Amino acid sequence: MKLIAIVVGAMSAAFLALSQGQANGLPLFVPVSGFVLAAILWLARDISIFLRIFMGMYALGYLLIAGANTLASYGLVPQTLGALVPPAFMATASVSFAGLVFGVSFIPVVRTITDLADPYFYSVRSGGENFSWFGRLFRSEGRAAVAMVAAIIATNFVQVGLNIKFNLWYRDLFDALQNKNADAFWYQIWWVFIPLLVFWIIFQLLDFTIDTIFRIRWRQWLTESYFSRWLDRSTHYKMGVAGQNADNPDQRISVDVASFISSTMTLSTQMMAQLATLVSFTVLLWGLSEGFTFPGTAVVIPGLLVWIAVAYSLVGTILTHLIGRPLIRLDFLQEKFEANFRFSLARLREYGEQVALLRGADAEKANLRGGFAQVITNVIDILKRRLKIEGFRFSWQQMSVAFPYLFMGPYFFLERITLGQLQQGAQAFGQVNASLSFFISAYTTLAAYKATIDRLVTFEDAMGRAEVIGTVPPHIERKTAPENALAIRDLRIDLPHGARIVEIDRLDLRAGEPVLVNGPSGSGKSTLFRALAGIWPYGSGEVDVPEGRSVMLLPQRPYIPQGNLRDAISYPAVAGAYDDAAIKAALIAVGLPALVNRLDDDDSWGQRLSGGEQQRLAIARALLAKPDWLLLDEASSALDEKSERVIYEAIAAALPGTTIVSIGHRSTLAAFHDRRVDLQPMDDGVSRPVDLAREPVPAG
């Protein structure tokens, strides 16, 4: 930005020198405004990169417009291209836009938006694999993003310039009709309109193509960024445990991300285009109505139609906001209610068997009716509010059509303006009014956009709070140690609200020594296993894992992802980590030979398999992964004792180097373990280990 500021300042000095002493040179305000632009760019060097792109493009627009007009003043622009040169005042308009962008960068809601957007533009990751050579044109995704936004702004800026030329064409065309000048009429058709039309089509298609590709790439990057952050370091688990789980994170990642990107690009480019249109057509409208008097009086009001448009739009904007303000809250609630209803349906599908066995259809229907009633009630509230807004907006916009003719018609009949000027003024008034009424037209979109921003911000905040849990002392520290044991030192395990549940001063789970952990329900056995696995964030102390050794925890209820059976068995390893022979051998070892020929079948395996089969499949994963310590949290509870024996024998045979640590209540499990540790709640309500192979561990 510093370099751009220097270039703009130097070029402004050059424009000033070249325009001196020349009759048709640049107006003085153009180079002067360039110096102002250079100062603004220098001050804006540290604002959001997303906003700096806009400012950089406006600086480029200033240089191109001022440069083209300078060349035209020296007769260096061919006559056929002269009609396409934007008016000189457009250069100053670029300066106004840059100043406006710099000003809005200090608005809190804009800062919130740019905080969400900026990380993409700083990304150093390569991307664009889905777009052939175009996708690989830039070395990093961030550079590609900057270039594409710049191109989108440029095409929008060109389209505004073409709109101005169309407005001038309207004036000249209707003047030719009024004067019955056939030569001028056909010149306007073939040599002005046709070139303008060709350029308009080209830039419309260019804008559509770049904008679409950019949105796809941004969504791909931001979606991957969110779900990676959500899953990394067990953030999704910590959010649930801590009670900071932003509702329906799946929707925030899938729906809200897409909505945020679409609305950000649509509103930002539209707003900038409307500002460019506003400034440009305001100048034209001011010139057309400079000598108009206020109706019914002899008082001359310079730029009367401009002031009428401003007043008309200001009143409309205030009324629209008063009518539509509740929409922000209603749109936020609608996203929440819709997501809750979808989640209820998805959860019902997941637990379909249990609902059927319990004959729970009536209860489920009642729950679904309640959730859907929230959706419908809120939709009706939104409908009522939008009817008020749309009714007002349609009425307000239609009334504005007659305004320019009402004020300009008398001057046409007095022959103070031509038919072309009347048409030009009417169109310019419409453009100015539309630009000033942008807030009115886009209010419902802005309300939904604000709700989307709020949902993404709360999601990021929830992830941020979860990410720091367990990282600030005191916390459970997981270290590597040279000893050949999974060692617990001064471990204190707490619940999220702060109550202590387990205390262990010292406990070694030695390699090669299978251990059975017992204790009454609620004594903290599963929580202890989660601390050993490194995912429980509450407490203090130390868990030492021998260097280079792995720990795998199998919960009572396995997770089985959607997809083919091969990938479900390989989980959590990525697809292709194990060959089919190893997978089939693991299935046979755990008693699932019927599945060996179904590895390519896609199914909802979490519903297709019984509870016992799911636990067998989870054991098959352990046989493939070959961990050094295997923590089984009642991982065979759905099996009968005979099948459980088969499973433990299969583990012992396939994983002779793996140390098994089990939680279980069956007495038959003792046969598969050399040592037993009981977690016993003491008088203070805290559970402490009693090692039956040794003396009881002293209380901490």
From TrEMBL:
rRNA processing as a keyword of this entry, yes or no, is no
Assigned keywords, A-Z: ATP-binding, Membrane, Nucleotide-binding, Transmembrane, Transmembrane helix, Transport
Q: Which GO terms describe its cellular component?
A: plasma membrane
Q: Which residues cross the membrane?
A: 29-45, 57-77, 89-110, 144-164, 184-210, 271-288, 300-323, 394-414
**Keyword Transport (UniProt):** yes
Q: How does it sit in the membrane?
A: Multi-pass membrane protein
Q: Taking the first listed entry, what is the main subcellular location of this protein, grouped into a coarse class? A: membrane
Q: Name one GO molecular function term.
A: ATP binding
Q: Which residues form the ABC transporter domain?
A: 486-699
Q: What are the ABC transmembrane type-1 domain coordinates in residue numbering?
A: 150-448
- Location(s), subcellular: Cell membrane
Q: Which InterPro entries match?
A: AAA+_ATPase (IPR003593), ABC1_TM_dom (IPR011527), ABC1_TM_sf (IPR036640), ABC_transporter-like_ATP-bd (IPR003439), ABC_transporter-like_CS (IPR017871), ABC_transporter_sub-D (IPR050835), P-loop_NTPase (IPR027417)
| Highest taxon in the source lineage | Bacteria
Q: Which family does it belong to?
A: Belongs to the ABC transporter superfamily.
From the Swiss-Prot or TrEMBL record, give the protein name: Putative ATP-binding cassette transporter
The organism encoding this protein is Chelatococcus caeni
